[in-house]
From TrEMBL:
InterPro entries: DAP_DH_C (IPR045760), NAD(P)-bd_dom_sf (IPR036291). Residues 145-349 form the 2,4-diaminopentanoate dehydrogenase C-terminal domain. Transmembrane segments: none annotated. This is Dihydrodipicolinate reductase.
Length: 365
């Protein structure tokens, strides 16, 4: 059975999602939504950098795409700076009878204990009314700190702590809003960026902590614990998203910890540099410029280092690819899922069926 899919946005993640939809034999791209008027009327293959046309023309007409009655929307639009507006968009899709896999808002990866119960119920009600499901995922938050660590715990005899780390150089990560306004790179050290306002880390990455805890049948202390260590630039740095003058924020290490009786049991840790030479005292990737590391303390002690790198780009390019493909490869499972919001705890195993020796490729230029 071929599932009809609409791709919602063609940015740094969406362009790779188009390539992924095109390569899967069980998916058919039937529509593409764009926010930029300059992209309206252009072919999806051109927007994705495939070097060939797909015969699907981009539009900013939401109603026209809904009228196509696709089986699923792959939603990769920017949501970090419009969380509640984006949730309304997703509810509209569900009420319209369309399944959705989305890269955000990330709080919906596992919103229990974070969003108000009535808001979660509203999403579930929308799914039931439209007989449609919603799954929010990616790589981080996503596979690197839900499926991967939970799979590892199946090998444990005793678990003292599960720690999920992202260790990355963001100098080639092109997301100016995220880098400057949300993380605060290049901003004075006496400012408080959006991400480090108390409670925001627990909303953004708390869901992965709570989901792992739910998978392990843990009841966590409230609230989650946030720890932040920001470091100023020792010289001027330049990234693809933002300039970082000496003395402004250049690196950050943060944790979101779920505790039981005051003891850390599930920890999400991020070590984010804007140049690989920064903060050598912090953990560094075992290879390359970025990695995800899972450390499970207990019996036995276990550690996995997961790194990725683009065939035609660096780890920030491949980060967009793996985010897109976690969504695209989940489409069939989400279409088959029970209506409402579904998490990684609800879905069966998802794998890259049909992708060997595929034909799609995306230019990084």
């Amino acid at each position: 059975m071929t599932l009809r899919v609409v791709e919602w946005s063609t940015g740094t993640v969406g362009r790779h999602a188009i390539a992924g939809i095109d390569i899967r034999p069980d998916l058919e791209l039937v529509g593409v939504w764009v926010s930029d008027p300059a992209k309206v009327g252009r072919d999806a293959g051109e927007l994705a950098g495939l070097g060939r046309e797909l015969g699907v023309i981009a539009t900013n007409d939401r109603d026209a795409l809904i009228a196509l009655k696709p089986d699923c929307i792959v939603h990769t639009a920017m949501t970090d700076d419009r969380i509640f507006e984006a949730i309304e968009d997703l509810i509209f899709f569900l009420e319209s009878g369309i399944n959705v896999v989305s890269s955000g808002p990330v709080v919906l990866q596992f919103p229990h204990g974070i969003l108000p119960a009535d808001m979660i119920a509203r999403i579930d009600d929308a799914g039931r009314s439209g007989n449609a499901s919603l799954h929010v995922n990616g790589i981080d938050p996503g596979f690197a700190n839900d499926v991967l660590p939970l799979s590892m715990t199946s090998l444990s005899q005793r678990i003292d702590e599960v720690r999920c780390l992202e260790i990355a150089d963001y100098s080639t990560y092109y997301q100016p809003v995220v880098m400057s306004s949300i993380f605060g790179f290049g901003q004075p050290m006496d400012t408080t960026p959006m991400l480090f306002t108390p409670g925001v880390l627990s909303m953004a990455w708390g869901p992965v902590v709570r989901q792992i805890a739910a998978g392990l049948d843990l009841t966590l202390d409230e609230p989650l614990v946030e720890r932040v260590d920001r470091v100023a630039a020792d010289r001027d740095y330049s990234t693809v998203s933002v300039e970082i003058p000496e003395g402004t924020m250049a690196a950050v290490r943060f944790e979101v910890a779920g505790q039981v009786d005051g003891v850390d049991r599930v920890v999400l840790e991020h070590i984010t540099r804007t140049h690989p030479d920064q903060c050598p005292q912090w953990p560094t990737p075992l290879q390359g410029d970025g990695s995800y590391r899972i450390v499970i303390s207990g019996e036995p002690q276990m550690q996995v280092e997961f790194a990725h790198h683009g065939e035609h780009g660096d780890h920030n390019v491949s980060g967009m690819i793996v985010t897109a493909m976690r969504l695209v490869n989940s489409v069939a499972a989400v279409v088959d899922a029970e209506p409402g919001l579904v998490t990684a705890l609800d879905l069966p195993q998802v794998w890259g069926r049909g992708l060997v020796a595929g034909r799609a490729s995306v230019s990084t230029s």
